[in-house]
């Protein structure tokens, strides 16, 4: 116990005294690594599917239609995990381990219950949902093949994503990272086997993904029932208690809204692109959405690394270190996003060629990428400042700024701009950079105003 207290005190001392650059590097590298691995988990299916002989382009487009469903399934795991894990950590900090275990047990029960409901709903209404989400007669078969398998793995997604947060919240960062690494590595290995060797095509990609998620889920459950964990899953704690679960839902609703609105955005884009550009336009967006993950996930890793530095020093009243950490984070984020912007503007075909070699899809995607991602240089400011608001305890402001980009700006622009351009498809694609630049400008100005008021050095007390 004494050794643990000394380790915690040492960590706190580092956050308050160590050089900001060294701290950010130490904390951000594992977070970025986890995000990059998670990115591979998400896009490896698309890479392999896009290169299936003869059907690759149509199959890739069909799988792209399924993204809103996959995102929504993940959003429900965040609703429980992002609400439950912090509350369990607070209970541990208050020296109430039994309460923390009860929170974790109730969250597991909720995740299992959601898995049953979501699986049943999607199996019953999968085809009409996919038609509504932008499928066409050319792509509906591939979308059905993929989701017809993937939906059966919903319980593994809920456990591997949701319960892994309870490993992270206990301080087992490496174990939590291995959950992602194991699943991603297995998926990369199994995809070509099931797709090409067993000749199962799109269905094979889904089988590989579900098996990988199952292994990750087993890994999580073995850890949380094993000897190393501080909080252990116990049957008596899994009895559902609303007084335990309702506060979890209240805390988790913000990340749920952020993820579920991403699902809504994908539906709006898919249906608009199908209307004005057909399957090729939807396929191009599928590729571009994958490239956007390459931009955004490392930025999220950077912000995760900076969060404890910013939060600790803000709580300690050390505003000089808060300002330094935010400036360094912003510099790193902007440098990365601007370099990526330059690559996309100059050589988009290099990135697009990873997913497909179909000439028609390549031509459309290269043209569209330069338009759709023209504002990606602003991602650094948008992500850096938005997440800094979160690190400073301004969760509502962070959520409102996220919704500003997607709900207030982007979705209306997707519907409105095609009315003003002869090239309707251009109108859909150009909505993204306009929303990105406007949202980043608003977020930057908001943070500067906040910083001027709240991040001043506290005056020294008069003697």
From TrEMBL:
Pfam families cross-referenced by the UniProt entry: MatE
Keywords, comma-separated and alphabetical: Antibiotic resistance, Cell membrane, Membrane, Transmembrane, Transmembrane helix, Transport
Assigned GO CC terms: plasma membrane
GO molecular function, one term: antiporter activity
Membrane topology: Multi-pass membrane protein
Membrane spanning residue stretches: 20-43, 55-82, 103-126, 146-166, 178-198, 204-224, 244-260, 280-299, 328-355, 367-385, 397-421, 433-451
Subcellular location: Cell membrane
Presence of the UniProt keyword RNA-binding in the record: no
The organism's place on the tree of life at top rank: Bacteria
GO biological process: response to antibiotic
Keyword rRNA-binding: no
NCBIfam families: matE
Family the UniProt entry places it in: Belongs to the multi antimicrobial extrusion (MATE) (TC 2.A.66.1) family. MepA subfamily.
UniProt-recorded name of the protein: Multidrug export protein MepA
Organism: Candidatus Acutalibacter pullistercoris
